[in-house]
Amino acid sequence: MWHTREQRRSASLSERAKAFSARRGKPAIRAAACMIGALACAGRLDAAAARGIFRPGPPAIKTVSARAPERPGTVELGNGFADHGMAAPTASCLGMIATSDGAGRDVVLVQLGDCRGGYALLMIDPDTGASEQFPMPFEPRGSAFASILSSSNKLYTHFSGYFCEFDPVRRAFTFHRETTPEMAMSMTEDDRGVIWSATFPQNGLVSFDPGTRELKDYGRLYPRDWAQYPRSIAADDAGWIYMGVGLADSQVLMFEPLTRSVKSFAPEDGAGRPGRSLMLVYRAVNGRVYVHSRRSRGGRMEFYKGEARRIEGDGPGMREKPQVTGSQGLFHGNLPGGRRVVGLDLENRLLAVEDPRGGGTKRVSFDYSTAGGLIMGVAATPDGTICGNAGSHFFIFDPGADSWTRRPGFRQWNAMTPHGGRMYVGAYPGGHLLEWDTARAWTGTEIGNKDSNPMRLTGCSPTIDRPHKALITADGRTLVLGGAPDYGRTGGGLLFWDIQSGSRELLDHSAVIPDHTTMSMAAIAGSRFLGGTSTRPGSGGVRKANEAVLYIMDAGTRKIEWQAPVLPGAQEYSELCPGPGGLVYGLAGFEPWDSLQLSYARRFFVFDPARRVLVHEAETEAGFGPFSYQQGPRNLVRGPDGSVYVLFMHNIARVDPAGYSLEILARSPVPIMAGADILGGRIYFSSGSRLCSFRLDAGAGPKTDDSANRELLRRQARRGP
Question: What's the angle, vertex CA 61, arms to CA 58 and CA 65, rounded to 5?
Fold first, then answer.
């Protein structure tokens, strides 16, 4: 996947503003949520590839396959489990900076991320391709979302609750210290050379003085009940620090280090309401700080010595003071000697350096190690293969040939469902709906090109930005897509796509269940479906609903026929799956969604949509363990014979249709992190970067006695969760 300066500059403000949460938990799980966001910035084939930087002459194709790893093939893990290999044998770029080393030689620093999170810093010699990899000096449980190269040629970053310094002269990490969680969303250097870091999720602030080696952790300056994204930070020449915060309630926080006083400024939109956008502050050459919000009207805001005023026009002193800093999309290619890095390809391990003085473009190969990109989900295709996306890549695994096909992907494939020889996909960010004809040649996705395969049918943002579920109604006429809204918003809508006519209707959350997001759906009969909501808002939004509901809706009329909080206190009906006899099996959670959490307890339940009654419910964590978090949950899987399987993080179970008890089939030797689907008698799922499966005829364990869970359930029902 190419990374170029042009690609970074062309990214829209909304794309650059996307920020993602780090999670705590076991190492393989801790990194997943951060990588979700970081990999979204890995980009697509761009201007550098189009100019033929890495291949002679004009490019003949617009996609480049990743280099296949050297691997022996599928490996049996025992007890019916198998490891089919690494889906995407590549890392992602979490920021690239060109600078020099101790001998004055040009070097390129690349922050690497994979399924473990931000695991290492790579230093590349742009003349020879010789590379050296430096592991992070702490256990990564997330990824870098901001970094800065200081005026003294030190690289700073801050994530996983650690602030650290890398010295390219000494070729080593020279400082790291634990801080208030979790990760920087922006960094800056003040006039004294002090480095400042503004952190997610509660407006934390840290400073580091390279001269005295003193780190000051000021804690959380402005905690709120929802996640805060301080995506910009600047210092005026009087020593005040300013943090631009979004998204649900835009603020500029003003901080005076000596007194530690905090002031806030909240601009109003044209209707006199708080703005909902990302406040971006910057330091100007005149020593003052300026901010521009897309929702702010009537001029630009100027900040100085903790005071704000609105000004008109732009003066020469208002231009931005140069600093080498940015988000995970940072691409600083200017080498000290005058050359420029114009392309970075981590898949094929290639670097392109251009000499604007007439020396042409030089291409060098380099190498590095990686555990591979994080698999976000897997699904069986109509042509008998398993597909999914890992990092910035789409992959296809052919079980019969034990072979892989890998291609650059269009966005992150969250929700996938087959129909009529095609795969329909809900992709994040942007809430895109894709149609992939598996019988046609893959061309890649180009918005507006109807000959693309996969073809982008429509986009739904801001109404739906992060799809969670794609459903084909029982009559086969309508695709319904549900998911969370854009950043800073509350309540996700529904897309209704007429498969025959290719027309659409997009409903706002207010026309479905106000302030709720549809998380799960199951077809009932005809055009009707059962939906399950979540109280979660869009990232950085405010949770407003008190409890989630089940509802029945007619996709033909777009009308809600019935709704009720079937499980009082539930915050999310994460999955719904058709069971035998017209019943629907489901999973419900009672914890409000937390961006720092990647595993949850779930209550298993059985619902009769015809009678609109709850048939059965049972707690599962005590007997089976937690579930892994997924953006497009597929923990309930229906087999060809109608059997329903349940994938916990460490166990695979089957539902007994007679009494609805869960029967353990096997304990997984690897964590089950995303999935799942059934093909050829096997359940396929992911474990970090690896595609794994379980053979369904491998045997069944004993049924679990859930009488203790039933008693706990009765007590909770009396007092509420």
Answer: 125
Give 387-409 as a DSSP string.
EEEETTEEEEEETTTTEEEEEE-
Closest CA to 416 of 447, 445, 449, 376: 376
Alpha carbon separation from 710 to 549, 575, 587, 623, 703 (Å, rounded): 22, 21, 16, 12, 15
Distance CA 489, CA 494 (A): 15
Q: 357 Cβ partners below 8 Å, 6+ apart?
A: 338
Bridge partners of 183, per DSSP, are: 200
**Residue-range domains of the chain with CATH:** 1-64+91-144+328-371 (no CATH), 179-325 (2.130.10.10)
- pLDDT at residue 41 is higher than 70: no
Condensed to tens digits (0 to 9), the pLDDT of residues 67-90 reads 444 456 899 999 999 999 999 999
More confident residue, 34 or 336: 336
Whether a cis peptide bond, with omega within 30° of 0, leads into 182 is: yes
Whole-number pLDDT of residue 141: 86
Helix residue ranges per DSSP H, 381-467: none
Model confidence pTM above 0.90: no
Question: ∠ at Cα 199 (462, 229), nearest 5°?
Answer: 15
Q: Rounded to 5 degrees, what angle do the CA atoms 427, 590, 650 make?
A: 70
Output the six-digit token pair for 461.
């943002």
Per DSSP, 233 falls in state E
33: exposed, middle or buried (Cβ count in 10 Å: 0-12, 13-18, 19+): buried
* C-alpha closest to that of 686 among 331, 253, 390, 488: 390
Phi, psi of 709 (to 5 degrees): -65, -35
Cβ pair 371, 69 in contact under 8 A: no
Long-range Cβ contact pairs of 212-215 (< 8 A, separation 24 or more): 213/175, 215/163, 215/175, 215/177, 215/179
Tokens for 148, please give them: 């800065």
Q: Nearest CA to 146 among 294, 13, 37?
A: 37
616-621 contact pairs (CB < 8 A, 24+): 616/660, 617/567, 617/713, 618/660, 618/661, 618/662, 618/706, 618/709, 618/710, 618/713, 619/706, 619/709, 619/712, 619/713, 620/646, 620/648, 620/662, 620/709
Query: Hey, is 35 helix, strand or coil?
Result: helix
Average pLDDT taken over every residue of the chain: 86
